[in-house]
Amino acid sequence: MSETTSEVLENRRGGRRQPVLWKSVLTVGDYSFDCVMYNVSLQGARVKLDLPLKEGADAVLDIKNEWTVRAKVAWQEDGYMGLAFDADASDVKVMFGDIAARF
């Protein structure tokens, strides 16, 4: 069975992913879109957003109205997209606090 492009790219990504179901808001330029985060790691996140965005697009992800992180669209397929955080893993770990121990 062949892997999809997103599975290949996601499997190449380092870091342990933590399954989550978090309401989030993705802002690209002057536009904000509600989305749902399905997994997160110190390097990035997988979100569901039924709107095509250009790979490499700069974005800001507001997670559960608690955390905000700058990111880039790394891939997208079938309404999902991978976001690569622009922050160092150590900064993301501090941002998430105790939750980061899971990933």
TrEMBL record:
<protein>
    <submittedName>
        <fullName>PilZ domain-containing protein</fullName>
    </submittedName>
</protein>
<dbReference type="InterPro" id="IPR009875">
    <property type="entry name" value="PilZ_domain"/>
</dbReference>
<dbReference type="Pfam" id="PF07238">
    <property type="entry name" value="PilZ"/>
</dbReference>
<feature type="domain" description="PilZ">
    <location>
        <begin position="12"/>
        <end position="87"/>
    </location>
</feature>
<dbReference type="GO" id="GO:0035438">
    <property type="term" value="F:cyclic-di-GMP binding"/>
</dbReference>
